[in-house]
């Protein structure tokens, strides 16, 4: 199943799949209309000679013109798309290119022009102008070629509008944030409604003294997704414990341990193949099961914006704002447990993301790159204040407080202006007050 999901994801990210389907559909549509024309539709089409009344030579010239025009426009569309990819890669980060390639508007636009071209070729070859009984002009099919070309003009205008919007920083950042939030909703659907994780109340047995048999990876690459149900099933089937050696988004090297089993002997080939099949490994990370990668993309854009060569504080501020919205969603979610059980029997030891780790992923490098940028530091403090107001979980508050302390140290070390220092000190006080208030609420809830 993981292989099928990976294959489908690759198809969605390709420029050729949707245009291929549209070309195939246009060919089938052309064949159907030609058959309708050959079945005697000219009897009722003759009632509208100004619409359907076209000779063989005129039909041939019109279809030839439309086919050539569609190929020219398709070439222009490819050029505009590649230019947008180059600009996005150089201005922001190359990791957002897959977002452009997955654009349904771009794929549909290319498909419209390619399918119209193929449609015109199919209809063109059926025209016969011998002047005798065998003369055949598929008037209905020719008319629809004209309609499709008019539709292509509208699609081209909308595509230019779409490209102009899609290369703007706000659109790119919002798109990545939306995809990341969708991944969070899919991977972490459960709302946090208790202070501790479900498995903290169990008596965890020590695993250090057990013998572990490693199952090596069959290929090198990034772990894109993991079928947790398959891992649990294999652990139950082999009556052992499966320990993940790498989490989603990590890079695994071929022939190094992918998972380990509490076995003193080599598992059978079926078990090894099933464990490997539970992992999807590819050449790049994807955000489908990896919200950290979405955060990583936004962080990369912020760092690029803060670089001396670009120095675009406004873009970096937008990145911090959208990171705030992502972390505000994460702070209210229940993260999956590290240990998964079959009844009371431990079966899987997983590597899972944590709010603390994602918080550091979001702000550590931006903070280090900002240093003397007061606007960014103030924005991060505002973000920590906002996120802190949404949680009463002790571990979250501790992680947020650590981020506040790191910014306080940076202010003491790097900010020389008394005005800027006073501004940041006010923000620091506000963030600390919020965290203290939430910590008090946490203590009251525990006592209650």
Fold and architecture overview:
The chain has 448 residues and is of the alpha+beta class. It folds into three domains: 2-167, no CATH class; 208-282, Aldehyde Oxidoreductase, domain 3, CATH 3.90.1170.30; 291-343 and 352-447. It contains 16 helices and eight strands. The chain has helices spanning 2-12, 17-45, 49-52, 56-91, 97-101, 104-124, 139-166, 169-187, 228-238, 269-277, 291-306, 313-330, 355-370, 374-388, 394-414, 418-447; strands at 213-216, 221-226, 242-244, 251-252, 257-261, 279-282, 339-342, 345-349. A five-stranded mixed sheet has the order 1-5-3-8-7, with helices on one face. Helix 2 (17-45) crosses helix 6 (104-124) and helix 13 (355-370) packs antiparallel against helix 14.
Could you list some keywords that capture this structure?
five-stranded mixed sheet; flat; 65% helix; 448 residues; 3 domains; alpha+beta; Aldehyde Oxidoreductase, domain 3
Lay out the secondary structure.
Blueprint: H1 2-12, H2 17-45, H3 49-52, H4 56-91, H5 97-101, H6 104-124, H7 139-166, H8 169-187, E1 213-216, E2 221-226, H9 228-238, E3 242-244, E4 251-252, E5 257-261, H10 269-277, E6 279-282, H11 291-306, H12 313-330, E7 339-342, E8 345-349, H13 355-370, H14 374-388, H15 394-414, H16 418-447
Parallel strand pairs: 3-8
Antiparallel strand pairs: 1-5, 2-4, 2-6, 3-5, 7-8
Helix pairs in contact: 2-6, 4-6, 4-7, 6-7, 8-11, 8-12, 11-12, 11-13, 12-13, 12-14, 13-14, 13-15, 14-15, 14-16, 15-16
């Amino acid at each position: 199943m993981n292989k099928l999901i990976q294959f489908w994801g690759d198809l969605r990210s390709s420029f050729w799949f949707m245009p291929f389907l549209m070309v195939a559909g246009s060919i089938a549509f052309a064949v159907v209309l030609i058959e309708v024309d050959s079945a005697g539709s000219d009897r009722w089409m003759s009632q509208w000679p100004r619409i359907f009344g076209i000779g063989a030579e005129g039909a041939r010239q019109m279809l030839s013109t439309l086919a050539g025009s569609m190929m020219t426009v398709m070439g222009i569309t490819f050029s505009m798309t590649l230019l947008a990819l180059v600009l996005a890669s150089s201005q922001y980060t190359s990791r957002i290119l897959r977002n452009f390639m997955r654009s349904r508007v771009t794929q549909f636009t290319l498909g419209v022009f390619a399918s119209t071209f193929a449609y015109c070729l199919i209809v063109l070859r059926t025209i016969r102008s011998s002047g005798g009984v065998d003369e055949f002009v598929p008037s209905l099919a020719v008319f629809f070629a004209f309609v499709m070309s008019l539709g292509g003009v509208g699609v081209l205008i909308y595509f230019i509008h779409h490209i102009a919007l899609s290369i703007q920083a706000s659109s790119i950042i919002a798109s990545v944030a939306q995809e990341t939030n969708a991944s969070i909703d899919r991977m972490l659907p459960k709302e946090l409604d208790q202070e501790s994780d479900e498995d903290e109340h169990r008596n965890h047995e020590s695993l250090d003294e057990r013998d572990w048999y490693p199952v090596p990876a069959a290929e090198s690459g990034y772990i894109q997704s993991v079928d947790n149900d398959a891992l649990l099933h294999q652990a139950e089937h082999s009556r052992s414990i499966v320990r993940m050696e790498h989490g989603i988004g990590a890079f695994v090297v071929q022939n190094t341990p992918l998972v380990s089993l509490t076995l003193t002997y080599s598992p059978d080939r079926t078990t090894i193949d099933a464990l490997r099949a539970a992992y999807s490994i590819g050449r790049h990370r994807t955000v489908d099961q990896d919200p950290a990668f979405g955060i990583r993309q936004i962080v990369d854009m912020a760092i690029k914006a803060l670089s001396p060569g670009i120095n675009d504080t406004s873009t970096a501020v937008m990145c911090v704002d959208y990171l705030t919205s992502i972390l505000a969603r994460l702070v209210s979610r229940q993260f999956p447990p590290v240990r998964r059980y079959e009844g009371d029997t431990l079966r899987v030891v997983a590597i899972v993301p944590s709010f603390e780790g994602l918080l550091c992923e979001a702000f550590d490098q931006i903070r280090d790159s900002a240093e003397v940028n007061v606007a960014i530091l103030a924005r991060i403090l505002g973000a920590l204040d906002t996120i802190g107001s949404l949680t009463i979980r002790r571990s979250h508050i501790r992680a947020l407080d650590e981020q506040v302390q790191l910014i306080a140290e940076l202010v003491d070390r790097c900010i020389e202006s008394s005005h800027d220092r006073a501004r940041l000190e006010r923000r620091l006080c506000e963030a600390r007050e919020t965290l203290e208030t939430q910590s008090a609420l946490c203590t009251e809830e525990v006592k209650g």
